[in-house]
Amino acid sequence: MTSQEEIEYLKSGLDWTSGNEKIDKFIQKRRLNTDLYNDVVFEWIPYNQFNEIKEIGNNCSITVYSAIWRNGPLCNNKYTRDSNKEVALKCLHNMQNPVDILINEATKYSTTNAKLLVLYGISQNPDTNDYILVFSNENFGKDCIICDEIYTDIQYKWCKPCNFISWKSGDDKIDSLIQLKINERSDTRFEWIPFNQFNKIRKIGKGMFVSIYAAIWEYEVTLLYYNDSQKLLDKVEEFDSSCKIYGLSQNSDKKDYILALQKEYCMEYGKKYCKNCGIKFTQIRYLWCKPCTNIFTKWTVENEKIDDLIQEMKLRTNSCFNIVFEWIPYNQLH
Ligand SMILES: [Zn+2]
Ligand SMILES: [Zn+2]
Question: How far apart are the first and last CA of the chain?
Answer without folding.
Answer: 82
